[in-house]
Amino acid sequence: MNRVRRLLAAGVIAATLVAACGGNGGGGTIVAVVVDVTGDLTTVDQFVVRLPDGSDQVIEPAPGIRFHGDAAITHIRDHLRSGAPVRITYDVLDDGTWIAREVEDAGGE
Known about the structure:
The chain is α+β, with helices and mostly antiparallel strands. It has helices at about 1-20, 75-80; strands at about 25-40, 45-50, 55-60, 85-90, 100-105. It is built from two helices and five strands; from the N terminus they run αβββαββ.
């Protein structure tokens, strides 16, 4: 039951961050589940995450980004398969594009 409470609390916090940082030129940090990845075996062109409010967001990785711990960004495919959440620090460009600056395992959140 504690795990469920932690997940709900993390969802509320992430939703608050998304609401607070969702405007153009903003950014923030979210915890989300990866639902799609495009690219090939060695690259990730973009990925889609399901936000706590149930909506999906397309995110492009910043050039040269590595998965936290210096793993290749393609590690995100493991999260697509497992459903394990990721924590993403991102910027929102003026055109509304979300750019991931850092991606890491979110653990038990």
